[in-house]
Amino acid sequence: MIGLISATAAGAAASERLAAAWPDRVRVYEGPVGPSVQRAFGECTQLVCFLATGATVRLLAPLLADKASDPGVVCVDEAGRFAVSLVGGHGGGANALAHEVAEVLGAQPVVTTATDAVGIPGLDTLGLPVEGDVAGVSRAVLDGERVELAADFAWPLPALPPQVRGGDAARADDAAQPGTQGAGGSEAAPTPPAGARIRVTDRALEPAVREAVLRPPSLVVGVGASKGAPVDEVLDVIGAALADAGLSPRSVARLATVDAKAEEPGIVEAAARLGVPLVTYSSERLAAVDVPNPSDAPLAAVGTPSVAEAAALAEGGELLVPKRKSAPEGRAAMATCAVVRRAPRGRLAVVGLGPGARDLVTPRAKDELRRAAVLVGLDQYVDQIRDLLRPGTVILESGLGAEEERARTAVAEARKGQAVALIGSGDAGVYAMASPALAEASDDIDVVGVPGVTAALAAGALLGAPLGHDHVSISLSDLHTPWEVIERRVRAAAEADLVVTFYNPRSRGRDWQLPKALAMLAEHRAPRTPVGVVRNASRADESVRLTTLAALDPATVDMMTVVTVGNTATREIAGRMVTPRGYRWQQDPDTVAAEAVEAQR
Ligand code: SAH
């Protein structure tokens, strides 16, 4: 329950808004604030005080006992501008509550807890289970202490600050520092033992002092079960297999079995209790997997000589525990399992940054940037978002023209098991990096695309509604596409009466293509057809011009520009470019053709 305490009319009004938004979560305390805070502190798990921070601190001070058990407290100022996480940021959930309150009230959340405020990932926010001295090691990271990163294998982690480094690399770097050489100058001085350590492992070890253990989802457990096998028996055989092999159940990524067992209650329930998905494969697919212990029983029952081993190995990996049977007392075994360590899969996020303005970068794009350990992109785009990256992100930037190389680099980094973000302006799939990257990528990495606002849409919004009916984008760059092909497409768009947005319309060395393309459209569209010329959409020196096919001066167009040509129905209405949604308003095509002929005389 969240206790709400207010003193003034404005505070009471804001408190009512929260109460209306969360009717089942809050309790409103009325009367003098001192006793209210005291009662709420004892009765609630969280408090929102519509009071100054100073007043709240004085009221709370005598009540505070221990950050593990005290309620989290958020303060909201009189004007409702800020929701301040005051105490219990993590344990009391005040940081999260501050965000929630801010959302409801349209306020700004204020969070001052160290890891959150400086954008360093708390170890518990990396998306992996973590054990051990999480607070102590997070603290060490935050204090800039060198923290050793000991990973049993590469796993796509988000960026960690530079002071978190692999043991060998760290030692080599230290040895290279001036002044750390031994007396004779030929031997490196012994490295002082690293204090804190982050371990990345699926082995079932107890975290040492000042050690946090991250559990990558690296294990796949193949299971087989006879009809009606009890869930406990399935869980027992899995538990025993993991324990005997010294593996942590928290690294289990999924259970796997044959299609015929997709509904087997013992298996379905075991997956649910372990909190992992169940994947199934056809018996043909499993029969084709090479396994060490095939047998006749499953072949007869479900049509594959192996279920547990084959399902565990279906996506490749290293067999750590060959098939073993359950050992129920007094009857025959009904469950089998096998454990595989899958190869680490890198992650390639192809992220569109939008046309330029920060508020046109989608929240999902921001999340992906913060999730990456390696960022690959054109230098000028990297500059656009550098401040959004987590400290420690490795940035591989290159200049114009190095597209192929960037694509190869991004894929190669992902193949090493890294979390990589490959960025592009607008949408990264539109005349941009997604195609060369995915042409290069094989199925051994995960690929995630994040759509961005492409230039045609950014320009469309500035011009009015030019894309209200069927439209097409055409790049006029003949660097990679023969001009004949471009010309054929422009002609087809002209004949099909499509609204056309020209990307890459004109550069210093490429100046005849745009007039030529416009002339082709003019054969089918009236001279007064609206044309929008948008330069640097959503950037500092944005310019928007509305002109016509006849009046457009190509010299005003450059590579920062898109040119949107209306169809025969597009009109200028109140200074805006509007393409009607239906053909009902469309002019008689004969009139249009006649106008076009006239214009050419
Ligand atoms: N992936 C990008 C397009 C890359 S091609 C996107 O989806 O927007 C480069 C061309 O895009 C430029 O020559 C220009 O024609 C257009 N362009 C990109 N950003 C633009 C912007 N902010 N304003 C106007 N045109 C832009």
Distance between the termini: 80 Å
Question: What is the typical, i.e. mean, pLDDT?
Answer: 89
CATH class of the largest domain: Alpha Beta
Measured as a percent range, the helix fraction is: 25-40%
Ions, cofactors and other ligands present here are: S-adenosyl-L-homocysteine
- The CATH superfamily of the largest domain turns out to be Tetrapyrrole methylase, C-terminal domain
CATH architecture of the largest domain: 2-Layer Sandwich
Query: What low-confidence regions span 5 or more consecutive residues with pLDDT below 50?
Result: 168-193
Radius of gyration of CA atoms, rounded to a whole number = 32 Å
Instruction: Please name the CATH topology of the largest domain.
Output: Methyltransferase, Cobalt-precorrin-4 Transmethylase, Domain 2
Tell the overall outline.
globular
Numbering strands along the chain, what is their spatial order in the largest sheet? 2-1-3-4-5-6
What's the number of extended β-strand segments? Answer: 29
Class per helix and strand makeup: alpha/beta
Percent of sequence in beta strands: 15-25%
Counting structural domains, the number is 4
Domain Tetrapyrrole methylase: 348-552
GO molecular function: precorrin-3B C17-methyltransferase activity
InterPro entries: 4pyrrol_Mease, 4pyrrol_Methylase_sf, 4pyrrole_Mease_sub1, 4pyrrole_Mease_sub2, CbiG_N, Cbl_synth_CobJ/CibH_dom, CobE/GbiG_C, CobE/GbiG_C_sf
Keywords: Cobalamin biosynthesis, Methyltransferase, S-adenosyl-L-methionine, Transferase
